[in-house]
């Protein structure tokens, strides 16, 4: 962390995003980045480190190092957004107060949907329709609970032409988003200053830039 990140932590880092590369670099290490969106809607790095693995202990170490630098300012954090990695979730529970919410990145959920609902498995037109309807379930806040559940029930009624393996993957995915619906960060952040942080696609772009330069920032 640099001095600007430490100074700004208490008043800009109430919503943080944590994401990692997956050893897609010359040195075969993961790059962990904690970042936020500043008042100009620019991506700003709060802290970064490299690690050999993505285990819970790695993230616990990372969060503890951040706390050493920022001190009591760590208490300003109220939401952390990441993918569904259980190692990050466990580390957040270990290192942060119970009031800190762990929200799920919608970008990663949509990427998983794209891998399941393919043109080959669902057909071009039907697959596009399914992806659009699931995306609306994830993003649209105008549903009542009954409407959301009704749309969900309709979506899981797949035609017999869908193969058993694909059907199983899709139903598992849908069951997961139903279970974790209120953990989608959109529900938490839609009216906050950090509106732009409901997905971590910014992190993906930042990773590509950093990896291209082979530049690593270590705490």
Please count the beta strands (DSSP E, at least 2 residues each): 5
Q: What is the count of helical runs? A: 10
Structural class from helices and strands? alpha/beta
Succession of helices and strands: HEEEHEHEHHHHHHH
What is the domain tally? 2
Summarize the amount of helix as a percent range.
Answer: 40-55%
Classify the fold: give the CATH topology of the largest domain. Nucleotidyltransferase, domain 5
Strands side by side in the biggest sheet: 3-2-1-4-5
Mean pLDDT: 79
Radius of gyration: 19 Å
CATH superfamily of the largest domain: Ribonuclease H-like superfamily/Ribonuclease H
Tell me the β content.
5-15%
Gross morphology is elongated
Largest beta-sheet details:
5 strands, mixed
CATH level 1 name of the largest domain: Alpha Beta
Low-confidence stretches at least 5 residues in length (pLDDT < 50)?
187-200, 211-219
